[in-house]
Amino acid sequence: MPQINQLAENWYLASQLFWLALIFGAVFVVVGLGMYPKIEATVDARDRKVADDLAAAKAAHARADDLESQYRQQNDAARAGAQKAVQDAKDKAARDAEKRLAKVDAELSDKMTAAEADVAAARKSAMAEIESVAAEASADLVAKLSGVKVAAADAKAAVKAVLHG
Amino acid sequence: MSAEAGKFDPMHQFTVEPIAKLFAIDGREVWLTTSAVWMAAAAIILWLFMLGGMKRQLVPGRWQMAVEGFTGFISSMMSTNIGSEGRKYTPYVFSLFMFILFCNILGMVPFALGGLHPLTVTSHFTITGVLAVLSFAIVLVVGFWRHGLHFFSLFVPHGTPWPMIPFIAPIEFVSFMVRPFSLGLRLFVAMTAGHVLLEVFANFIVQSSGAGAAIGLPVGLASMALMIGISALELLVAGIQAYVFALLTSLYINDAVNLH
Predict the structure, then answer these.
(1) What pLDDT score does B113 carry?
(2) Domain total for chain B?
(3) Nearest chain A CA: its distance from B199 CA (Å)
(4) Core-most of A50, B2, B11, B180, by most CB within 10 Å?
(5) Is the model's pTM score more than 0.90?
(6) Looking at the predicted structure, is the pLDDT value of residue B25 above 70?
(7) CA B219 – CA B212 distance, rounded (Å)
(8) In this predicted structure, what is the pLDDT of residue B115?
(9) Would you say B197 and B230 are in contact if contact means Cβ atoms under 8 Å apart?
(10) Across the interface, do A28 and B27 touch by the CB < 8 Å criterion?
(11) Domain limits at B34?
């Protein structure tokens, strides 16, 4: 086994130890202490960036959700306001119409009463005229039939008695 | 165990060959060796691989994804085993894991590198042992630094009845002290055994070519099929052993940080 046999040679152990110390030392300093931390830092920075980006995306998502719900609330409020305004306008219009209608109604009924009164008055005067005409006519008839002159007042009374029972 | 000329020796692949003498300290010579070249190659390939992950883009490309896959794998292992305090030790465990992984995988390369024969650096216990002792030393330093002498309570598991402590504590102590050996030997043995197996079956294929069609063809084909399977298995082992080394290191550091 050369690994053991060569131990007897003067140069073997010294050379092995010298070169191992030199080369492994160089590897440790250059690779282990020089390059490794930089590579790890790159990996860590990437991990952190990914985590940060994910957190930012999550925050943006939450903000978007907030905005949407806020928008929805505003929309609902605006819709409710508009509906209320429409309802108010409708109510007001209905009230106005009712009021106007009542006023017109009252005017119409006033006119009606006046017209009825006129009609009654007309009827009354017409009746009175009919009485006097009927009294004259009956007086004339009596005079023609019997030759008796009837006084106008008597005729009138007689007609009145007949007309009014 | 050195091979005679023309004789097959599956252990020869583990021989470290000296290339050039550099200097000597206290009589000990330090040479540029094949082992050093393969370690350096692994380190450079690892550096190039990591360089592809340094674009630091927000949306990673394929290469950056691959590098971040490795870093994420180790950092998640550390945070699962140790908790948030494990991040401090991640650079060490990551270097350890990647270095062992690249050495293991580079050891699987069947061709020579610039005239040097292939060598699996992690099949030498001088290498794995030093890495294991390094991990163990970190455990000791962290443990005593954070908990002081209270660190010895590691040897008395929670809920141990008082009369049992004299028996449990030595066992726990031995199992604690064995850790660097088991850590280093596991990797060394796994890589050595795997590569011996690869070499033996590869040699069967070569030998079968000289055994005639009647015996050579079935043996060669069967060995080839096995060779493909074992190569795949060895790639798996290369990854798993690097992972096990890093995982156990993280578990031991967890003991030091959190005391059970």
Answers:
(1) 62
(2) 1
(3) 14
(4) B180
(5) no
(6) yes
(7) 10
(8) 66
(9) yes
(10) no
(11) 3-258
